[in-house]
Amino acid sequence: MPKRIHLIAGILAPLCIATFFLSTVLVELFGSPAAVAQVKSLIVTPGLWILVPAIAAAGGSGFFLSRSRRGRLVDTKKKRMPFIAANGLLVLIPCAIVLDRWAAGGSLDASFYLLQALELVAGAVNLTLMGLNVRDGLRMAGRLRGPAPRASAAS
Ligand code: HEM
Predict the structure, then answer these.
(1) Closest Cα to atom 33, ligand 1: which residue?
(2) For the whole model, what pTM was predicted?
(3) Would the CB of 55 count as within 6 Å of ligand 1?
(4) What average pLDDT does the chain have?
(5) Phi and psi at residue 31, in whole multiples of 5°?
(6) How far is the CA of 147 from the centre of ligand 1 (A)?
(7) DSSP state of 21
């Protein structure tokens, strides 16, 4: 059961961040202010209500699964988790809430885009860290091969 929870949450969390990221970039490049406000609102509700439990479930089930594991991959995954959680709680959630309020109030000004840029950078960082955790997790679960061994000098 924890393995299944970890797999689902471990795919869902990066998928949420990627969806928020892409929809934000697309709507802010090509959408009307009303469409921007709509997307910013959807990112908060239901978006954050899916993302936050998914990150918590991925972290919690990951630490549970790691009790019986040793090695570099699991240690590196453990070290990435506090950055993923802190970035989510301290940057992504507050940014999403404030951007939603500003967009709803029609203030798509310089402050909005500055905060938006910060949110996109934090999102890209979390997406990278989560992507690395997915890759290492799939390797540990035997679903992904490690880097191919170097060809020997003799061959
Ligand atoms: C948001 C963070 C994380 C993501 C996105 C993530 C993602 C994944 C994915 C996709 C798998 C493959 C599961 C499968 O194929 O069944 C996996 C496996 C695994 N993850 Fe994570 N993980 C995260 C955090 C953690 C943490 C913090 C730990 C604890 C150190 C951890 C420990 C493990 C272990 C031990 C496995 C192997 C499970 C097995 O034996 O099949 N993960 N992870």
Answers:
(1) 62
(2) 0.92
(3) yes
(4) 94
(5) -95, 165
(6) 18
(7) H
